[in-house]
Design brief:
This protein is α/β, with parallel strands linked by helices. The protein has two domains: about 160 residues, Alpha/Beta hydrolase fold, catalytic domain (Rossmann fold, 3-Layer(aba) Sandwich), CATH 3.40.50.1820; about 90 residues, Lipoxygenase-1 (Sandwich). The chain contains four helices and twelve strands; from the N terminus they run ββαβααβαββββββββ. The radius of gyration is 21 Å and the shape is elongated. It is found in: Cell projection, Neuron projection; Secreted; Zymogen granule membrane. It comes from Anseranas semipalmata (Magpie goose). Keywords: Cell projection, Cytoplasmic vesicle, Disulfide bond, Hydrolase, Lipid degradation, Lipid metabolism, Secreted.
Length: about 260
């Protein structure tokens, strides 16, 4: 059974006979996309972990792309009816859209086992363990029987719009140069299966010989990394023409 943001009002904290529960089937996976409190935030989805695998994309409360202004959502590219529904319950309806996308991207939507979304944003829940990470959505049942905990909370990020699947990489960069500057550094990944756009890894003071670590949620699975493009920029025109480079760049795929 796959629960697509099961309802919170009238169901949260009720007996298992009333709501969805992992005892309802041999394998129950749940996608939580609107689990903020009903009052005052009007969250429609249940917050509790109730399945064998519980996925909390983007933390499970506020989905990227759902904070658009109301007019742009109602006059949606998918039509006025779709846009109106998104305006009323955008976070809630993301669950079925993620599920639909998961059919097209069987290697996407990897969920990382974590105690919280804040922990997911650190290095503590990366990379996937030896048994791998479950895929949120249609292929979650590939993980059936592999879990040891009574329940498993899984976290991941998604895109703002279709295609929603993202692939997580950890990037560590050691800078080179003669003096520190203020600005930002971007990297793009090139691989056997495609290339990513530029992703910002650090902003602020760029100090030569310092090492900076960041996570990238890339819009494509690049496969085997063949090249990394490093670009930096300072925030204003500097007549001294400072130079900055990268001594080393390490890229780690979350999947393997």
């Amino acid at each position: 059974l796959s629960g697509l943001d099961p309802a919170q009002p009238y169901f949260q904290n009720t007996p298992i006979e009333v709501r969805l529960d992992k005892s309802d089937a041999e394998f129950v996976d749940v996608i939580h996309t609107d689990s903020a409190p009903t009052i005052p935030e009007l969250g429609f989805g249940i917050r509790s972990a109730i399945g064998h695998l519980d996925f909390y994309p983007n933390g499970g409360e506020q989905m990227p792309g759902c904070g658009k202004n109301p007019l742009s959502q109602i006059v949606d590219i998918d039509g006025i009816w779709e846009g109106t529904r998104d305006f009323v319950a955008c976070n809630h309806l993301r669950s079925y859209k993620y599920y639909s996308d998961s059919i097209i991207f069987p290697d996407g939507f990897l969920g990382y086992s974590c105690t919280s979304y804040d922990a997911f944003l650190t290095e503590g829940c990366f990379p996937c363990p030896q048994e791998g990470c479950p895929n949120m959505g249609h292929f979650a049942d590939k993980f059936k029987g592999k879990f040891k905990n009574s329940f498993l909370k899984l976290y991941l990020n998604t895109g703002e719009a279709k295609d929603f699947a993202l692939w997580r990489y950890k990037v560590t960069v050691t800078l080179s140069g003669k003096r520190k500057v203020r600005g930002y550094a971007n990297i793009a990944l090139y691989g056997s299966d495609g290339n990513t756009r530029q992703h910002q890894i650090v902003k602020g003071t760029l100090q030569p010989d310092n090492t900076y670590t960041s996570f990238i949620d890339a819009e494509i699975n690049v496969g085997t990394v063949t090249k990394v493009k490093f670009l930096w920029n300072n925030n204003w025109i500097n007549p001294t023409l400072p130079k900055l480079g990268a001594t080393t760049i390490t890229v780690q795929s979350g999947e393997n």
